[in-house]
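Forwarding these from the shared drive since the link keeps breaking.
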Amino acid sequence: MPWQTLCPSEAIADGQARGFDPQDRGRPTVFVLRWEGELRAWHDWCPHWGTGPMAWRRDAYFSGDGEALMCHAHGARFHPLSGECTLGPCLGQSLWPVAMRVDDAGGIQVDMGDGPPMPGPAPTH
């Protein structure tokens, strides 16, 4: 899949994240955040459960204290820049990064072609 423009880079303020659906799946499959001035793009699913989206409502990817990304299904917390799980059921695992760049016009672009396969349905307990 070729590079796809999601939004202007200034549309994401520091400490914020936004979800996008570049694969037309009917729900966000990737989210982009800005943390301490740096942009990152992650696949929108938790390594613990293998499904997404992680946000409990549109673009609500950060924890209540604004210090970590959070999977609201089971409370797993992730470092915004490294994607490493720092608390919760997937401790030691990480979010899957998405290839991202900012084009000459300042647009955030992603390439979903080199990412991991999207997970199947969640397991039943």
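-- next protein --
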Amino acid sequence: MATIGSSDHARLNRIGSHVYWLPPDDTTDRPILGAVVGARGTLIVDAGNSPAHANLLLCELARLGVAPPRYVALTHWHWDHVCGTSASDVPILASRETRRVVAAMAELDWSDQALERRVREGNEIEFCRSMMCAELPDRSGLVIRPPDLSFDGEVALDLGGVTCRMVHVGGDHGADCSVVYVEGDRVMFLGDCLGDDLYHGAPAYTVDRLFPLLDRLLGFGAEWYLEAHDPEPVSAQQMAEDAATLRTIGRTVQRIGRDREAILAALPALLGGPLSEDHCACVDSFLAGLDRAPDVPGSAPAWAC
């Protein structure tokens, strides 16, 4: 195993024999970008939040002299994962739902005025608008390329000496979310699939979506998980512990109901220690999820429906 983590947002890290990743940068909400390198080509995981972001990865891959990009895989439609799609001309691959929503995004007006209007209407998030304006002050020439290829369920990609499985998993963060699992290396790119729903009021987790997703992700048998906005890979042991914590919080909210103070009083004994800010935020997300209609299809604004 080579380098696991680095504080340099512009330098690739390596994990396993075939997997590289560019660290996230919360200055402008840049997520992890990944590269799975085979003998016949390289799969890029997510296109980044701007052409400049995507080009950082492309330049690093050129510096390493690895096989050229063969596909770009989009884990979901959110702006920070797709606004760099114009940086390369290789085929873009995504789930059928991601392809549909990104095609709608490609037709949107991205001016300051249009973004402000969508925020007022509840079809964009203030945080995303602010980060987009910071990363892309001038969006007059922004081009978002819709995926060329789509799949239902999952698809396997043989890159030469390494096989990736791209699997549609859904979740609260987005009904379209997919993961990329690198067999052999046992590394999984999660994208944001474990995030909460951001587009239907307060951030929300629902037990009915999150718990089956946790079971499914742990069932792959990965040794390392790369979440899009986490600065370091997460080990299988840590992933299992985090999943157990989420389940404990979710079940406690289900059992007690909307009494937040009673939930916060019960959890320290169940979790074996004092509550952190993250624990409290999870409580609030599960509480918000109690009011989420079961037919709300994951996180997507009105223009994408």
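The chain has one domain: 13-304. Residues 236-256 form the longest helix (21 residues).

- D.
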